[in-house]
């Protein structure tokens, strides 16, 4: 009987250990990932407890060096801080005139893709929480789309300080 009891205790401890490890992994993963929930796609807010976006002008910008792009072409989108200002996280979408995410982002060492509304890779976010001052993210314009888009970003300076709805100049997409 003592052998079976010890075996149960050992199994219980192993299960508890695995639950704790998985929980810790999930908690730390939010610093390098975006939860796949609809509210993130629409609001572009990081969901950091009760904290709200900053209302002062953002020290970060999102931009491109073009005003028009051919459908199917790739655009380099620049995210950067003014001066030496750094950010730990970002969330980026190209939005059409209906304010819906459009196009497709590419993953790289600084960007992971996120899918909104069942459309693959129509948003991008940080791949790590290291401080960054400037990064480029690649976006492909839809092949059969004609209209205007605006790159819209969220920048996270730290857990409690972030800006949403930081916009680039509007770009015309021609098919």
Could you explain the architecture of this structure?
Residues 26-175 form the Reelin domain. This is Reelin domain-containing protein. Keywords: Signal. The structure is a single chain. By secondary structure, the protein is an alpha+beta fold. The protein has one domain (33-174): Sandwich (Immunoglobulin-like). 19% of the residues lie in helices and 37% in strands. It is built from two helices and eleven strands, in the order ααβββββββββββ. The protein has helices at 2-29, 38-43; strands spanning 60-63, 68-70, 74-81, 89-95, 104-105, 111-116, 119-126, 134-140, 147-156, 162-167, 171-174. Strands 2, 4, 6, 7, 9, 10 and 11 form a seven-stranded mixed beta sheet that branches. The radius of gyration is 20 Å and the shape is globular. The model is unreliable at 10-30 (pLDDT under 50).
Number of strand segments = 11
Major β-sheet, in short?
7 strands, mixed
CATH architecture descriptor text: Sandwich
Approximate strand percentage: 35-45%
Instruction: List low-confidence stretches.
Output: 10-30
- Look at the structure and give the CATH class: Mainly Beta
In helices, the fraction of residues equals 10-25%
CATH topology, which one?
Immunoglobulin-like
Could you state the CATH homologous superfamily?
A: Reeler domain
**Structural class designation:** alpha+beta
Shape: globular
Number of DSSP helical runs = 2
Give the ordered list of helices and strands. Answer: HHEEEEEEEEEEE
Number of domains: 1
Distance from N terminus to C terminus (CA atoms, Å) equals: 76 Å
The whole-number mean of residue pLDDT values reads 83
Taking all Cα atoms into account, the compactness measure Rg is 20 Å
């Amino acid at each position: 009987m003592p052998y079976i009891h010890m075996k149960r205790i050992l199994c219980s401890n192993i299960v508890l250990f695995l639950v704790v490890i998985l929980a810790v992994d999930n908690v730390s993963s939010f610093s390098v990932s975006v939860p796949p929930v609809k509210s993130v796609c629409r609001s572009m807010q990081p969901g950091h407890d009760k904290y709200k976006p900053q209302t002062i002008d953002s020290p970060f910008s999102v931009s491109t060096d073009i005003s028009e792009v051919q459908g199917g072409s790739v655009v380099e989108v620049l995210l950067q801080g003014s001066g030496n200002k750094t950010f730990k996280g970002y969330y980026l979408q190209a939005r059409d005139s209906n304010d819906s995410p459009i196009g497709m982002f590419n993953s790289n060492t600084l960007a992971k893709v996120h899918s909104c509304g069942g459309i693959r890779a129509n948003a991008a976010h940080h791949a790590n929480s290291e401080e960054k001052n400037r990064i480029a993210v690649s976006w492909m314009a839809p092949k059969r789309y004609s209209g205007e888009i605006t790159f819209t970003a969220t920048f996270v300076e730290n857990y409690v300080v972030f800006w949403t709805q930081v916009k680039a100049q509007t770009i015309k997409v021609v098919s």
